[in-house]
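Ticket #312: bound-state structure for zinc ion.
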Amino acid sequence: MQDTLRYYLRKIESLRLGRSRGVPAPHKPLLLLSILDLIEAGEIQANRIEPSPRLVEAFLRYWKHIGVGHARVFLPFYHLRTSGFWHLHPRKGKELVLGSVRAFNAMSQLAGMIAYGSFDDELFALLLEPVAREHVRQTIIDAHLPRYRSVIEDIVNENREVARTERCLLRQAERSIATSDVPESPVRSAAFRSVIMKLYDYTCAACRLRIITLDGGSAVDAVHIIPFSISHDDGIGNGLALCKIHHWAFDNGLLSLDDRYKLIISSTFDETGPAALLLHNLKDNQILVPSRKPFHPSLHAVRWHRANRFQA
Ligand SMILES: [Zn+2]
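RESOLUTION: The complex was predicted; output attached.
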């Protein structure tokens, strides 16, 4: 084993953990495992780890099984800097403020001040190599989370399957391969949600709302344009990101899309409320679509929705 790897494995073994209710808090090791997963999935390719919704979601997959109480991802993101191999990069103009901060109390507060974290370059280069990355993962588990070995291995394997399925959905969309009539599977559903959220950046296609909570919850859903129960289609062309209210309105036929992805609004309902929230005010607005055409909603799905759900 090369010396550099051995050096970092020792650093990871001796990582000082915070304490929570008298026991070592798993935040730092879980953050490291989450970053390894995103590197492996190809979502982190540069030594620039942003406090993003993807990172929060990856962290929560572990936290659900291993953590207790609120998953405060911003804690390890900040405190890992004492490891010596993790560095914080303030946003422009926030350098001085960051220096005086003692603690963060929300991911959004952290993201407002810190653009990204990074590893020592030598360590990041090792994390890009599958064999070295596995050594790092095993060291994290052995040193800090031995009781949870099998839970962690199950999560890593599931993440691998979801990432593989996501790549498959992207490939199928790029090559216009039919995606309907597939059996329902939790991995495929997770991959559909994940790929749609990524393509739409957690933003409602109709109103551009983007809310992400401290615990990784999102006000935006990955929606099947033709319901899965009818189409059995988890393809990207059958997907759309919509906030809760526009998801509900879409499923109930109050809004739909024309062939140029402009919103059309049903004339069958009354509404009152602040102008910014009224569905009728969205009429003719162009929805947000992913930048690449193969990932746009399919016209087949859009036309189906208009013919079968929309209440003109
Ligand atoms: Zn919306």
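RESOLUTION NOTES: The chain has two domains: 3-144, 158-308.
TICKET STATUS: resolved
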